[in-house]
Design goal:
The structure is a single chain. The chain is an all-alpha fold. The protein folds into two domains: about 30 residues; about 100 residues, Cytochrome c-like domain (Cytochrome Bc1 Complex, Chain D, domain 2, Orthogonal Bundle), CATH 1.10.760. The protein has seven helices and no strands. Helix 3 crosses helix 7. The longest helix has 24 residues. The protein is elongated. Bound molecules: heme C. Heme C binds next to helix 4, helix 5 and helix 6.
Length: about 140
């Protein structure tokens, strides 16, 4: 009897683990972990007019199709995506560091393309600066 009960407990644990994993696969909760060295990376490009203007032109060319012109995640291509690209005007995005935005843009994941090798680091920082202007 005792043995049977502990078998039930083990089974329950297995079920809980599997449902946690499948939740992750379905994209319900999947934190995007950024390595500390990027999180604390200092933005080397000043947030001045020139940088924001350059960032805007690049953003419209490369990013707006998914992320939307005003960063709400409602670009024309967004409908065909499995994952929501995020709302750049909200706190969840704006509370991240510049380094986190830089890392995610440079390396991407899943449907978020990586721009490493396509855009220079300086241009990625220009876009990071521009995307700050979406703040509500
Ligand atoms: C093909 C569609 C697509 C394009 C083009 C695209 N993205 Fe994304 N982006 C996504 C998706 C989808 C996610 C969410 C990915 C995830 O959470 O796994 C995302 C996530 C992000 C994030 C993280 C958002 C957050 O809340 O943490 C940043 C930053 C980002 N994109 C920047 C950019 C920039 C800058 C460009 C243009 C250079 C760009 N993206 C182009 C689809 C796209």
């Amino acid at each position: 009897m005792r043995c049977y009960r502990s078998f039930l407990v083990v089974e329950l644990i297995i079920i809980i683990c599997f449902s946690a994993i499948s939740l992750n696969i379905n994209g319900q909760s999947k934190p995007w972990l950024v390595p500390d060295e990027y999180k604390t990376l200092k933005n080397p490009v000043a947030k001045d007019k020139t940088s924001i203007k350059t960032g805007m032109a690049l953003y419209i060319k490369y990013c707006a199709s998914c992320h939307g012109k005003t960063g709400l995640g409602n670009g024309v291509k967004a409908r065909g995506l499995k994952d929501f690209p995020g709302d750049f005007s909200g706190a969840e995005y704006q509370n991240q560091t510049d380094g986190e935005h830089f890392y995610k843009t440079k390396f991407g994941r899943n449907e978020m393309p990586k721009y490493e090798g396509k855009l220079s680091d300086e241009d990625i920082w220009n876009m990071v600066n521009y995307m700050r202007t979406f703040k509500k």
